[in-house]
Amino acid sequence: MTKPVLSLDDLKARILPELFANPSRLGEYGASEDSKLAIDELSKLMETGAASALADKVAEILAKMTDASPEHISKPPSFMARMFGTDVERTVKYRFARHRLEELIADAEGMAQGVQDTLHSIDRLIGVHSQDTERLRTLIQAGREFLLENPSVGAVPEGAMEFDRPRERLARKLANLGTLLASHELSINQMKLTKAQALDLLDRFNETVSVLVPVWRQHSLTLITTKHISPALVAEASQAHQALMKSLSASLDGISKH
Questions:
Q1: Measured between alpha carbons, how far is 248 from 255 in angstroms, rounded to an integer?
Q2: Nearest alpha carbon to residue 138 among 26, 3, 1
Q3: Segment holding 30, helix H or strand E
């Protein structure tokens, strides 16, 4: 994506002399459309916030987990509960909460793929920014050395009525490239942090979905299909439920610690 980095010697011996021979082109020094495109792509990527969206969905799942606690249907119904049908209502609420959780988990799995796609984009953009960072360092060093080694090139004689000052223009250009370099270095660090957060969340979530969700799903299904619910069955379902909640909560903790 980014153009090959010119050597320090080539910049000083060929590119810069050519630009000073035609000072109107000094603004072209260090210009790169690819660099601008990479910055725009990074901005759009950060605005998308795939990892944040997944974290929000995990938090929503956690909030709904309480409604699907096995304890809600494990207590034997009282005489009044049987008379007014509240025991049936309790079972219906549990079934609905379980169904809603299945929908949220499916949504989260789709978002996890979005996070994976984001990670691929981040890796590519880190490579692009790293290459452009080296390009900028070389451009800045070449420009500074050229001005130091050629004190008369582009200089305006004292007292001359000349408004175009090529040396000053190049110095300003180098300062701007230095600002862009600092921005690139900050962006790389930001992308590395974002990548670490996304990887941690994705690893924890995938492990939860592949290991704990099937166990929770089996136990919760048993509870709504078994006519006589034993204390042992409830205990196993509660254990699976708590393990799932703990794992999901740990996924969000991993985000907040970075």
A1: 11
A2: 3
A3: none
**Model confidence, pTM:** 0.76
3-state percent breakdown (helix, strand, coil) of the chain, nearest 5: 85, 0, 15
* H helix intervals, 161-212: 166-207
- Closest by CA to 54, choosing from 137, 142, 118, is 118
Say if residues 146 and 184 touch (Cβ distance below 8 Å). no
The per-residue DSSP string of 118-165 comes to: HHHHHHHHHHHHHHHHHHHHHHHHHHHHHHHH-TTTTPPPTT------
Distance between CA atoms of residues 49 and 17, nearest Å = 45
How does pLDDT run along the chain (258 residues), one tens digit per residue?
445 568 999 999 999 999 999 998 998 898 887 777 888 888 888 777 888 899 999 999 988 888 778 876 655 555 454 554 555 667 777 788 888 888 999 999 999 999 999 999 999 999 999 999 999 999 999 999 999 999 988 776 665 555 668 898 999 999 999 999 999 999 999 899 889 988 998 998 998 988 899 998 888 888 878 777 778 888 888 898 899 889 888 888 766 554
| Nearest 10 degrees: Cα torsion 220, 222, 224, 229 | -110
CA distances from 168 to 19, 152, 157 (A): 14, 12, 13
* Residue 125 structure tokens: 């953009």
